[in-house]
Amino acid sequence: MLTGTVSLLGTFTWIFQIPGFRFYHALPLAIFYGAFTAIWCAGISWFNNRKKTYLVILFTPALWVALEFFQNHLGFLSFSWATLARSQHATPAILQMAALTGEYGITFLIVLVNVIFVEIILRRNWKEALIAGAFIGLCLLIGSHRLNHPVQTRQIRVAVVQPSILLSERKTPESRTLARRRMEQLTYQAASFHPTLIVWPETALRDLKRHPELIAWIRRITRKTHAALIVGASEFTKFGKAQQPNRSKIVFRMREYNTAWFFNSRGQTSPPYRKRLLVPFGEYLPLTSVISWPDWLVPKAIQSLPGNAYRVFSLGDGIPLTPIICWENLFPDFVRKAVKDRAWIVVQLVNDNWFGKTAAPEQHNMASVLRAVENRVPVIVASNTGPSEIIGPYGQVLAKAPRLFLPCVITAKIPVPQERTFYTKYGNLFSWFCIFGGILLIPLSKKKRR
Predict the structure, then answer these.
(1) Is pLDDT at 365 greater than 80 in this prediction?
(2) The domain containing residue 127 runs over which residues?
(3) Helix or strand (DSSP H, E) at 199
(4) Which residues, other chains included, contact 276 with Cβ-Cβ below 8 Å and sequence gap of 6+?
(5) Domain count across the chain
Protein backbone atom coordinates (compact mmCIF):
# COMPACT_ATOMS: atom_id res chain seq x y z
CA MET A 1 0.00 0.00 0.00
CA LEU A 2 2.84 2.35 0.87
CA THR A 3 4.66 1.51 -2.35
CA GLY A 4 1.58 2.20 -4.45
CA THR A 5 0.79 5.49 -2.72
CA VAL A 6 4.33 6.88 -2.77
CA SER A 7 4.91 5.88 -6.40
CA LEU A 8 1.66 7.62 -7.42
CA LEU A 9 2.66 10.81 -5.60
CA GLY A 10 6.08 10.66 -7.23
CA THR A 11 4.66 10.19 -10.70
CA PHE A 12 2.15 13.01 -10.32
CA THR A 13 4.24 15.72 -8.65
CA TRP A 14 3.24 17.96 -11.58
CA ILE A 15 -0.36 18.01 -10.37
CA PHE A 16 0.57 20.64 -7.77
CA GLN A 17 1.14 23.07 -10.63
CA ILE A 18 -2.65 23.33 -11.01
CA PRO A 19 -3.89 26.48 -9.24
CA GLY A 20 -5.75 25.66 -6.04
CA PHE A 21 -4.58 22.03 -5.92
CA ARG A 22 -3.28 21.07 -2.48
CA PHE A 23 -1.78 18.05 -0.76
CA TYR A 24 -5.12 17.16 0.84
CA HIS A 25 -6.52 16.81 -2.70
CA ALA A 26 -3.67 14.58 -3.86
CA LEU A 27 -3.38 12.20 -0.91
CA PRO A 28 -6.87 10.59 -1.18
CA LEU A 29 -6.30 10.04 -4.91
CA ALA A 30 -2.86 8.52 -4.32
CA ILE A 31 -4.23 6.20 -1.63
CA PHE A 32 -7.17 5.13 -3.79
CA TYR A 33 -5.13 4.31 -6.90
CA GLY A 34 -2.18 3.06 -4.85
CA ALA A 35 -4.54 0.47 -3.37
CA PHE A 36 -4.45 -1.38 -6.70
CA THR A 37 -0.79 -2.19 -6.06
CA ALA A 38 -1.69 -3.46 -2.59
CA ILE A 39 -4.47 -5.64 -4.00
CA TRP A 40 -2.07 -7.10 -6.56
CA CYS A 41 0.52 -7.90 -3.87
CA ALA A 42 -2.15 -9.49 -1.68
CA GLY A 43 -3.37 -11.56 -4.63
CA ILE A 44 0.01 -13.04 -5.55
CA SER A 45 0.80 -13.64 -1.88
CA TRP A 46 -2.45 -15.55 -1.47
CA PHE A 47 -2.02 -17.46 -4.74
CA ASN A 48 0.73 -19.86 -3.81
CA ASN A 49 1.57 -23.09 -5.60
CA ARG A 50 5.24 -24.00 -5.30
CA LYS A 51 4.74 -27.40 -6.90
CA LYS A 52 3.47 -25.78 -10.10
CA THR A 53 5.38 -22.51 -10.36
CA TYR A 54 4.26 -21.97 -13.94
CA LEU A 55 0.79 -21.22 -12.52
CA VAL A 56 2.28 -18.41 -10.41
CA ILE A 57 4.19 -17.11 -13.45
CA LEU A 58 0.92 -16.91 -15.42
CA PHE A 59 -1.32 -15.66 -12.61
CA THR A 60 0.89 -12.74 -11.56
CA PRO A 61 0.80 -10.73 -14.84
CA ALA A 62 -2.82 -11.76 -15.49
CA LEU A 63 -3.84 -10.24 -12.14
CA TRP A 64 -2.05 -6.97 -12.92
CA VAL A 65 -3.82 -6.76 -16.30
CA ALA A 66 -7.19 -7.45 -14.67
CA LEU A 67 -6.67 -4.72 -12.06
CA GLU A 68 -5.45 -2.21 -14.64
CA PHE A 69 -8.43 -2.98 -16.88
CA PHE A 70 -10.79 -2.49 -13.94
CA GLN A 71 -9.10 0.82 -13.03
CA ASN A 72 -9.65 2.07 -16.58
CA HIS A 73 -13.38 1.28 -16.46
CA LEU A 74 -14.51 2.87 -13.19
CA GLY A 75 -16.76 5.54 -14.63
CA PHE A 76 -15.73 9.01 -13.45
CA LEU A 77 -12.96 7.39 -11.36
CA SER A 78 -11.38 5.82 -14.45
CA PHE A 79 -7.75 6.84 -14.71
CA SER A 80 -5.22 5.56 -17.22
CA TRP A 81 -1.98 7.49 -16.81
CA ALA A 82 1.65 6.34 -16.70
CA THR A 83 0.71 2.68 -17.11
CA LEU A 84 3.39 -0.02 -17.24
CA ALA A 85 2.98 -0.46 -21.00
CA ARG A 86 3.77 3.18 -21.66
CA SER A 87 7.21 2.77 -20.11
CA GLN A 88 8.10 1.06 -23.42
CA HIS A 89 7.05 4.02 -25.61
CA ALA A 90 10.61 4.28 -26.98
CA THR A 91 10.90 0.54 -27.76
CA PRO A 92 8.87 0.07 -30.95
CA ALA A 93 9.86 -3.60 -31.38
CA ILE A 94 8.11 -4.70 -28.21
CA LEU A 95 5.16 -2.37 -28.83
CA GLN A 96 4.08 -4.16 -32.01
CA MET A 97 2.31 -6.76 -29.89
CA ALA A 98 -0.23 -4.05 -29.03
CA ALA A 99 -1.73 -4.37 -32.51
CA LEU A 100 -2.96 -7.79 -31.36
CA THR A 101 -3.57 -7.38 -27.62
CA GLY A 102 -3.80 -3.65 -27.00
CA GLU A 103 -1.51 -2.05 -24.44
CA TYR A 104 -2.58 -4.70 -21.89
CA GLY A 105 -0.45 -7.25 -23.73
CA ILE A 106 2.63 -5.06 -23.23
CA THR A 107 1.76 -4.77 -19.54
CA PHE A 108 1.54 -8.56 -19.34
CA LEU A 109 5.03 -8.92 -20.84
CA ILE A 110 6.57 -6.38 -18.45
CA VAL A 111 5.20 -8.13 -15.36
CA LEU A 112 6.21 -11.49 -16.85
CA VAL A 113 9.83 -10.30 -17.20
CA ASN A 114 9.89 -9.30 -13.54
CA VAL A 115 8.40 -12.63 -12.46
CA ILE A 116 11.14 -14.41 -14.40
CA PHE A 117 13.82 -12.46 -12.53
CA VAL A 118 12.19 -13.36 -9.22
CA GLU A 119 12.07 -17.05 -10.10
CA ILE A 120 15.72 -17.09 -11.16
CA ILE A 121 17.19 -14.98 -8.35
CA LEU A 122 15.17 -16.23 -5.40
CA ARG A 123 14.32 -19.81 -6.35
CA ARG A 124 16.83 -20.80 -9.04
CA ASN A 125 13.88 -21.84 -11.16
CA TRP A 126 15.39 -22.00 -14.64
CA LYS A 127 12.98 -24.29 -16.46
CA GLU A 128 9.80 -22.20 -16.43
CA ALA A 129 11.84 -18.98 -16.58
CA LEU A 130 13.54 -20.06 -19.80
CA ILE A 131 10.21 -20.99 -21.38
CA ALA A 132 8.74 -17.60 -20.51
CA GLY A 133 11.94 -15.89 -21.68
CA ALA A 134 11.70 -17.66 -25.02
CA PHE A 135 8.16 -16.37 -25.44
CA ILE A 136 9.31 -12.80 -24.76
CA GLY A 137 12.19 -13.20 -27.24
CA LEU A 138 9.72 -14.42 -29.86
CA CYS A 139 7.59 -11.31 -29.34
CA LEU A 140 10.68 -9.13 -29.85
CA LEU A 141 11.64 -10.96 -33.04
CA ILE A 142 8.16 -10.66 -34.50
CA GLY A 143 8.04 -6.97 -33.58
CA SER A 144 11.44 -6.29 -35.14
CA HIS A 145 10.41 -8.08 -38.33
CA ARG A 146 7.23 -6.00 -38.48
CA LEU A 147 9.21 -2.78 -38.12
CA ASN A 148 11.71 -3.79 -40.82
CA HIS A 149 8.99 -4.85 -43.27
CA PRO A 150 6.24 -2.21 -43.03
CA VAL A 151 3.27 -2.26 -45.36
CA GLN A 152 4.02 0.00 -48.32
CA THR A 153 1.43 2.73 -48.71
CA ARG A 154 0.97 6.29 -49.84
CA GLN A 155 2.19 9.21 -47.76
CA ILE A 156 0.91 12.70 -47.08
CA ARG A 157 2.60 15.75 -45.60
CA VAL A 158 1.31 17.20 -42.34
CA ALA A 159 2.35 20.11 -40.14
CA VAL A 160 1.65 21.09 -36.54
CA VAL A 161 1.67 24.64 -35.18
CA GLN A 162 2.84 24.91 -31.57
CA PRO A 163 2.01 28.55 -30.67
CA SER A 164 2.84 28.43 -26.94
CA ILE A 165 -0.03 30.69 -25.91
CA LEU A 166 0.55 31.49 -22.24
CA LEU A 167 -2.25 31.72 -19.69
CA SER A 168 -1.64 35.47 -19.40
CA GLU A 169 -2.19 35.85 -23.15
CA ARG A 170 -5.78 34.64 -22.89
CA LYS A 171 -7.01 37.33 -20.51
CA THR A 172 -7.41 40.40 -22.74
CA PRO A 173 -8.57 40.99 -26.35
CA GLU A 174 -5.21 42.61 -27.16
CA SER A 175 -3.17 39.64 -25.96
CA ARG A 176 -5.46 37.21 -27.78
CA THR A 177 -4.96 39.21 -30.99
CA LEU A 178 -1.17 38.95 -30.63
CA ALA A 179 -1.47 35.20 -30.08
CA ARG A 180 -3.56 34.86 -33.25
CA ARG A 181 -0.95 36.77 -35.24
CA ARG A 182 1.73 34.40 -33.98
CA MET A 183 -0.35 31.40 -35.04
CA GLU A 184 -0.90 32.93 -38.47
CA GLN A 185 2.82 33.54 -38.97
CA LEU A 186 3.68 30.00 -37.90
CA THR A 187 0.98 28.62 -40.21
CA TYR A 188 2.48 30.42 -43.22
CA GLN A 189 5.86 29.06 -42.15
CA ALA A 190 4.37 25.55 -42.12
CA ALA A 191 2.89 26.13 -45.61
CA SER A 192 6.39 26.21 -47.10
CA PHE A 193 6.45 22.43 -46.50
CA HIS A 194 3.37 22.13 -48.77
CA PRO A 195 1.37 20.04 -46.28
CA THR A 196 -2.01 18.51 -46.96
CA LEU A 197 -3.04 19.20 -43.35
CA ILE A 198 -2.05 21.81 -40.74
CA VAL A 199 -3.17 21.41 -37.12
CA TRP A 200 -3.63 24.02 -34.37
CA PRO A 201 -3.83 22.90 -30.73
CA GLU A 202 -6.68 22.62 -28.24
CA THR A 203 -8.51 25.90 -27.41
CA ALA A 204 -6.26 27.89 -29.73
CA LEU A 205 -9.23 30.22 -30.31
CA ARG A 206 -12.04 31.41 -28.09
CA ASP A 207 -15.72 30.92 -28.95
CA LEU A 208 -15.21 30.51 -32.68
CA LYS A 209 -18.91 29.96 -33.40
CA ARG A 210 -19.90 33.42 -32.13
CA HIS A 211 -17.22 35.29 -34.10
CA PRO A 212 -17.80 35.11 -37.86
CA GLU A 213 -14.80 37.39 -38.42
CA LEU A 214 -12.54 34.65 -37.01
CA ILE A 215 -14.10 32.07 -39.33
CA ALA A 216 -13.49 34.41 -42.29
CA TRP A 217 -9.89 34.88 -41.13
CA ILE A 218 -9.31 31.12 -40.99
CA ARG A 219 -10.82 30.67 -44.44
CA ARG A 220 -8.37 33.23 -45.87
CA ILE A 221 -5.50 31.30 -44.30
CA THR A 222 -6.60 27.94 -45.75
CA ARG A 223 -6.96 29.44 -49.23
CA LYS A 224 -3.49 30.99 -49.04
CA THR A 225 -1.82 27.83 -47.71
CA HIS A 226 -3.83 25.41 -49.91
CA ALA A 227 -4.01 23.10 -46.90
CA ALA A 228 -6.79 21.79 -44.72
CA LEU A 229 -6.76 23.14 -41.18
CA ILE A 230 -7.93 21.67 -37.86
CA VAL A 231 -8.54 24.27 -35.17
CA GLY A 232 -9.14 23.76 -31.46
CA ALA A 233 -11.62 26.23 -29.98
CA SER A 234 -13.74 26.76 -26.90
CA GLU A 235 -17.46 27.25 -27.45
CA PHE A 236 -19.61 28.98 -24.85
CA THR A 237 -23.38 28.75 -24.59
CA LYS A 238 -26.03 29.79 -22.09
CA PHE A 239 -28.22 27.31 -20.28
CA GLY A 240 -31.25 28.30 -18.24
CA LYS A 241 -32.24 26.51 -15.06
CA ALA A 242 -35.30 27.07 -12.89
CA GLN A 243 -34.58 27.96 -9.28
CA GLN A 244 -36.22 26.09 -6.42
CA PRO A 245 -38.76 26.61 -4.93
CA ASN A 246 -39.75 29.47 -7.27
CA ARG A 247 -39.77 27.73 -10.64
CA SER A 248 -40.78 30.91 -12.42
CA LYS A 249 -37.31 32.35 -11.89
CA ILE A 250 -34.76 31.23 -14.48
CA VAL A 251 -31.02 31.56 -13.82
CA PHE A 252 -28.70 31.48 -16.82
CA ARG A 253 -25.24 29.99 -16.51
CA MET A 254 -22.40 29.75 -19.03
CA ARG A 255 -21.47 26.27 -20.15
CA GLU A 256 -18.61 25.34 -22.42
CA TYR A 257 -17.86 22.84 -25.18
CA ASN A 258 -14.30 21.94 -26.08
CA THR A 259 -14.34 21.64 -29.87
CA ALA A 260 -12.25 20.77 -32.92
CA TRP A 261 -13.16 22.52 -36.18
CA PHE A 262 -12.17 21.34 -39.65
CA PHE A 263 -11.66 23.64 -42.64
CA ASN A 264 -10.76 22.10 -45.98
CA SER A 265 -8.28 23.72 -48.36
CA ARG A 266 -11.11 25.78 -49.92
CA GLY A 267 -12.18 27.16 -46.55
CA GLN A 268 -15.33 25.06 -46.30
CA THR A 269 -16.18 23.81 -42.83
CA SER A 270 -18.39 21.14 -41.28
CA PRO A 271 -19.99 20.61 -37.84
CA PRO A 272 -17.24 20.53 -35.21
CA TYR A 273 -16.24 17.64 -32.98
CA ARG A 274 -17.07 18.22 -29.33
CA LYS A 275 -14.94 16.58 -26.68
CA ARG A 276 -16.78 13.57 -25.27
CA LEU A 277 -14.65 12.42 -22.31
CA LEU A 278 -14.43 15.28 -19.83
CA VAL A 279 -11.98 15.49 -16.93
CA PRO A 280 -13.90 14.90 -13.68
CA PHE A 281 -13.52 17.73 -11.15
CA GLY A 282 -11.63 19.71 -13.80
CA GLU A 283 -14.27 20.11 -16.51
CA TYR A 284 -17.34 18.88 -14.66
CA LEU A 285 -18.50 17.76 -11.22
CA PRO A 286 -19.76 14.17 -11.11
CA LEU A 287 -22.78 13.05 -9.10
CA THR A 288 -23.99 16.60 -8.43
CA SER A 289 -27.54 15.31 -8.08
CA VAL A 290 -26.40 13.18 -5.14
CA ILE A 291 -23.41 15.00 -3.62
CA SER A 292 -23.06 18.68 -2.77
CA TRP A 293 -19.31 19.11 -3.19
CA PRO A 294 -17.80 21.62 -0.71
CA ASP A 295 -15.88 24.57 -2.19
CA TRP A 296 -12.72 23.81 -0.20
CA LEU A 297 -12.54 20.35 -1.76
CA VAL A 298 -13.81 21.10 -5.27
CA PRO A 299 -13.55 24.76 -6.35
CA LYS A 300 -16.46 25.87 -8.52
CA ALA A 301 -15.64 26.52 -12.18
CA ILE A 302 -17.35 26.79 -15.55
CA GLN A 303 -18.94 23.45 -16.23
CA SER A 304 -18.16 21.90 -19.60
CA LEU A 305 -20.60 19.86 -21.61
CA PRO A 306 -19.70 16.60 -23.40
CA GLY A 307 -20.26 15.95 -27.07
CA ASN A 308 -22.34 12.98 -28.14
CA ALA A 309 -20.69 11.65 -31.30
CA TYR A 310 -17.40 10.97 -33.01
CA ARG A 311 -16.60 13.04 -36.09
CA VAL A 312 -14.82 12.07 -39.29
CA PHE A 313 -13.34 14.73 -41.55
CA SER A 314 -12.16 14.00 -45.09
CA LEU A 315 -8.87 15.25 -46.50
CA GLY A 316 -9.94 14.18 -49.95
CA ASP A 317 -8.48 11.31 -51.96
CA GLY A 318 -10.28 8.90 -49.63
CA ILE A 319 -8.32 9.82 -46.47
CA PRO A 320 -10.67 10.25 -43.48
CA LEU A 321 -9.38 11.43 -40.10
CA THR A 322 -10.90 11.69 -36.65
CA PRO A 323 -10.05 14.22 -33.92
CA ILE A 324 -9.71 13.58 -30.20
CA ILE A 325 -9.09 16.17 -27.52
CA CYS A 326 -6.78 16.17 -24.51
CA TRP A 327 -6.99 13.12 -22.26
CA GLU A 328 -9.23 11.12 -24.58
CA ASN A 329 -5.98 9.57 -25.87
CA LEU A 330 -5.52 7.84 -22.49
CA PHE A 331 -8.34 5.37 -23.05
CA PRO A 332 -7.67 2.56 -25.57
CA ASP A 333 -11.34 1.65 -26.05
CA PHE A 334 -12.33 5.21 -26.84
CA VAL A 335 -9.73 5.69 -29.57
CA ARG A 336 -10.34 2.21 -30.99
CA LYS A 337 -14.03 2.98 -31.47
CA ALA A 338 -13.19 6.35 -33.02
CA VAL A 339 -10.94 4.66 -35.57
CA LYS A 340 -12.92 1.48 -36.30
CA ASP A 341 -14.58 1.60 -39.73
CA ARG A 342 -14.15 5.36 -39.72
CA ALA A 343 -10.69 6.92 -39.98
CA TRP A 344 -7.08 6.34 -41.06
CA ILE A 345 -5.53 9.23 -39.11
CA VAL A 346 -6.03 10.39 -35.50
CA VAL A 347 -5.49 14.06 -34.66
CA GLN A 348 -5.11 14.84 -30.96
CA LEU A 349 -5.46 18.44 -29.78
CA VAL A 350 -3.80 19.17 -26.42
CA ASN A 351 -3.22 22.10 -24.09
CA ASP A 352 -1.02 21.06 -21.14
CA ASN A 353 -0.22 24.68 -20.34
CA TRP A 354 -1.42 24.26 -16.75
CA PHE A 355 1.37 21.83 -15.88
CA GLY A 356 4.30 24.09 -16.73
CA LYS A 357 7.74 22.64 -17.43
CA THR A 358 7.09 19.29 -15.76
CA ALA A 359 6.94 15.65 -16.84
CA ALA A 360 3.17 15.77 -17.43
CA PRO A 361 3.22 16.60 -21.19
CA GLU A 362 5.76 13.85 -21.93
CA GLN A 363 3.78 11.33 -19.88
CA HIS A 364 0.63 12.41 -21.70
CA ASN A 365 2.19 11.84 -25.15
CA MET A 366 3.31 8.30 -24.27
CA ALA A 367 -0.29 7.12 -24.50
CA SER A 368 -0.56 8.40 -28.08
CA VAL A 369 2.34 6.16 -29.11
CA LEU A 370 0.36 3.14 -27.90
CA ARG A 371 -2.81 4.34 -29.66
CA ALA A 372 -0.89 4.56 -32.94
CA VAL A 373 0.45 1.00 -32.71
CA GLU A 374 -2.80 -0.53 -31.44
CA ASN A 375 -4.78 0.75 -34.42
CA ARG A 376 -1.93 1.03 -36.96
CA VAL A 377 -2.72 4.69 -37.66
CA PRO A 378 -0.60 7.86 -37.51
CA VAL A 379 -1.35 10.07 -34.52
CA ILE A 380 -0.74 13.81 -34.81
CA VAL A 381 -0.34 15.47 -31.39
CA ALA A 382 -0.86 19.23 -31.65
CA SER A 383 0.05 20.71 -28.27
CA ASN A 384 -0.17 24.38 -27.31
CA THR A 385 3.00 24.48 -25.22
CA GLY A 386 4.48 21.17 -26.34
CA PRO A 387 5.95 18.87 -26.98
CA SER A 388 3.96 18.45 -30.20
CA GLU A 389 4.63 15.14 -31.93
CA ILE A 390 3.88 13.34 -35.20
CA ILE A 391 3.77 9.59 -34.55
CA GLY A 392 3.87 6.94 -37.26
CA PRO A 393 1.58 3.90 -37.36
CA TYR A 394 4.33 1.67 -35.93
CA GLY A 395 4.99 3.92 -32.92
CA GLN A 396 8.06 5.79 -34.18
CA VAL A 397 8.07 9.51 -33.43
CA LEU A 398 8.60 11.05 -36.88
CA ALA A 399 8.83 14.66 -35.66
CA LYS A 400 8.86 16.34 -32.26
CA ALA A 401 9.05 19.91 -30.99
CA PRO A 402 12.51 20.65 -29.53
CA ARG A 403 11.24 21.75 -26.12
CA LEU A 404 8.32 23.00 -24.06
CA PHE A 405 6.99 26.57 -24.38
CA LEU A 406 8.72 27.15 -27.71
CA PRO A 407 6.63 28.65 -30.55
CA CYS A 408 7.52 26.46 -33.51
CA VAL A 409 6.34 24.27 -36.37
CA ILE A 410 6.98 20.55 -36.89
CA THR A 411 6.43 18.72 -40.16
CA ALA A 412 6.63 15.15 -41.42
CA LYS A 413 5.48 12.76 -44.09
CA ILE A 414 3.12 10.19 -42.62
CA PRO A 415 2.16 6.86 -44.17
CA VAL A 416 -1.52 5.95 -44.31
CA PRO A 417 -1.52 2.12 -44.01
CA GLN A 418 -5.27 1.47 -44.40
CA GLU A 419 -5.18 -1.87 -42.56
CA ARG A 420 -7.24 -2.74 -39.51
CA THR A 421 -5.46 -4.48 -36.66
CA PHE A 422 -6.85 -7.37 -34.67
CA TYR A 423 -7.19 -5.05 -31.69
CA THR A 424 -9.12 -2.46 -33.70
CA LYS A 425 -11.54 -5.10 -34.94
CA TYR A 426 -12.07 -7.11 -31.77
CA GLY A 427 -11.02 -4.93 -28.86
CA ASN A 428 -9.95 -6.17 -25.44
CA LEU A 429 -10.19 -9.93 -25.96
CA PHE A 430 -6.74 -10.38 -24.41
CA SER A 431 -7.78 -8.49 -21.28
CA TRP A 432 -10.87 -10.63 -20.84
CA PHE A 433 -8.73 -13.72 -21.42
CA CYS A 434 -6.48 -12.61 -18.52
CA ILE A 435 -9.47 -11.87 -16.29
CA PHE A 436 -11.27 -15.16 -16.82
CA GLY A 437 -8.03 -17.13 -17.05
CA GLY A 438 -6.97 -15.75 -13.68
CA ILE A 439 -10.32 -16.73 -12.18
CA LEU A 440 -9.95 -20.26 -13.52
CA LEU A 441 -6.47 -20.52 -11.97
CA ILE A 442 -7.68 -19.61 -8.48
CA PRO A 443 -8.91 -23.15 -7.58
CA LEU A 444 -5.41 -24.44 -8.41
CA SER A 445 -3.85 -22.32 -5.66
CA LYS A 446 -2.37 -24.15 -2.69
CA LYS A 447 -2.51 -22.10 0.47
CA LYS A 448 0.35 -22.31 2.92
CA ARG A 449 -0.18 -24.42 6.02
CA ARG A 450 0.29 -22.65 9.32
Answers:
(1) yes
(2) 47-149+427-444
(3) strand 197-199
(4) 306, 307, 308, 309, 310, 328, 334
(5) 2
